[in-house]
Amino acid sequence: MAIRERLSGNEAISYAIKQVNPDVMPAFPITPSTEIPQYVANYIANGEMDTEFIPVESEHSSMSATIGAQAAGARSLTATSSCGLALMWEELYVAASNRLPLALCLVNRALSGPININCDHSDSMGARDTGFIQIYAENNQEVYDNFVQAYRIAEHKDVMLPIMICQDGFITSHAVENIELLEDDKVKNFVGEYNPENYLLNADQPMAMGPYAVSNYYMETKMAQNTAMNNAKQVILDVGKEFGEMSGREYGFFEEYRLEDADYAMVMIGSAAGATKDAVDKLREQGMKVGLLKLRVFRPFPDEEIAMALKNCKVVAIMDRSECFRGKGGPLGAEIKAAIYDYAKDVKAFNLVYGLGGRDFTVEEAERIFNDLAAFDKDGAAFEEYRYVGLRG
Amino acid sequence: MAATDITKITEKSNWQDITLGNQVYGAGTSKLFKTGEWRTQTPVFHSEKCKQCLLCVPVCPDSSIPVCEGKRDEFDLDHCKGCGICAKVCPFDAISMKEGQ
To answer: Among A159, A240, A392, B89, which is most exposed with the fewest C-beta within 10 angstroms?
Structure first.
């Protein structure tokens, strides 16, 4: 029997960490992820888990120590947010290119400046090219479920890449919701033991990691990495299905919410999907065919699958919760428009930016966007090619 | 599974044959990587002046002065990069540097 609880997103992922009981967790506090190492340290102090916790002096060090521990042969993880992730930048690439399947619990927060502690996706979107797998959540249940699946994906022999389990700062990390937890033994059986084939502390087989790669090796290394990321697609689907068989909650690349016959759709990542679902329900009652594609997996990027899910829509609003200063939209907009160009040319797509620095995204705003998409389609009303939602002025 | 034999990976290897994350399996494999060709100056050992004090041995950054039964041997020119520290440290002028390889 599943356990019914009420937990915040940070508590939920910490509980999953306790159940997985990884070997090593180096961490440095930063809002809003601070609670994760705090809860884990409490579990360890109370004897509920035996992970080696390493308090370090910065995020540069926490990712370095996580890499070191993973290279040594330990299942490792850390947690961070915002500028903490930025300080890890150099190491993120090292973890990925060294093919270390460590986990990073990211609580999404805006990057400075101006300094701001609230949610947007600029931290993880900035790290989208590091070679980490990135999985996002709408609510606390998904955060918990995603972490339980994390090592199964990362450690798969066809993948062997680090994984970032993302949740929205404060909105998800600090809000308490009802949640269904799995029993300890179910989680342990599902995740299994980590038995790396090669690791530094194996005295029987000496080895070196992270050597210098001259030009004759670098591109071959990157292609191997890219292939592993592509392989992750099938593994994510397989693990999501197996998780569904165990828990009753199956996961894929994205959730299609009343999308099948939708004329107008919104695409977004994270907690704001909740507000959009309410707007979809409301407008459906009024007879409007609207829907939502809530993206869960951003790396690897399921471009063809997204385009296929959107191909029958007339107009789509791609919602970005980060700015990338290309002058014409955010990262999600750029990648989905490229996917549409390749696979679903008839779909018209607009790119909107919302929720930067924790700006609320409301049901009313989602309704307004759907109505604007319909007005553009039916009446030829102007639709600003690239707009900020809820911006003054 | 036995780890890939690193000696079979060369600058002509296909991407499918590169080890996971460029891992290097086995110990002491740097011996296989001949860096002596980087050298623009070469140390010359004058054995008649050498008192076998072995001061040159620990200062060599590339472990290119082999020691056999308590006595230093000829330079390992496959790995010596010609930095000249050994010549500088030798109190007996038993090492001189010449231009070129």
So the answer is: A392
- Would residue A231 count as lying in a domain? yes
* Same domain for B38 and B26: no
- Residues 6 or more apart whose Cβ sits within 8 Å of residue A133: A153, A154, A159, A161, A162, A163, A164, A229, A232, A236, A297, A299, A300
Closest C-alpha among A169, A333, A335 to residue A266: A333
- How are the residues of chain B apportioned to helix, strand and coil, as percentages rounded to the nearest 5? 25, 15, 60
> Which residue type occupies A78?
T
Instruction: Out of A198, A209, A220, name the one closest to residue B18 (CB).
Output: A220
Which residues of B are less than 8 Å from A209 in CB distance? 21, 23-24
Burial label, B84 (beta-carbon count in 10 A; 0-12, 13-18, 19+): middle
Q: Is the peptide bond before A32 cis (omega within 30 degrees of 0)?
A: yes
Nearest to A216 among B3, B11, B27 (CB): B11
A376 and A260 in a single domain? The answer is: yes
Domain holding A54, by residue range, is 3-247
Sequential pLDDT tens for chain A (393 residues):
689 999 999 999 999 999 999 999 999 999 999 999 999 999 999 999 999 999 999 999 999 999 999 999 999 999 999 999 999 999 999 999 999 999 999 999 999 999 999 999 999 999 999 999 999 999 999 999 999 999 999 999 999 999 999 999 999 999 999 999 999 999 999 999 999 999 999 999 999 999 999 999 999 999 999 999 999 999 999 999 999 999 999 999 999 999 999 999 999 999 999 999 999 999 999 999 999 999 999 999 999 999 999 999 999 999 999 999 999 999 999 999 999 999 999 999 999 999 999 999 999 999 999 999 999 999 999 998 789 999 999
| ipTM summary value | 0.88
Query: A120-141 pLDDT, tens per residue?
Result: 999 999 999 999 999 999 999 9
CA–CA dist A156, A164 (Å, integer): 15
Q: Which residues in A lie closer than 8 A to residue B1 (C-beta atoms)?
A: 197
Q: How many domains does chain B have?
A: 2
Q: Are B27 and A217 a contacting pair at CB < 8 A? A: no
Contacts with B, A 75-134, CB within 8 Å: 97-100
* CATH number for position A109: 3.40.50.970
Domain that holds residue B27: 1-33
In chain A, which residue's Cα lies nearest the Cα of B9? Answer: A217
Tokens 């385009």, residue located: A307
Q: Tell me the pLDDT tens digit for each residue of A287-342.
A: 999 999 999 999 999 999 999 999 999 999 999 999 999 999 999 999 999 999 99
A64 plus A142 within the same structural domain: yes
| A206/B26 CB distance under 8 A | yes
Is there a contact between B11 and A214 if contact means CB atoms under 8 Å apart?
A: yes
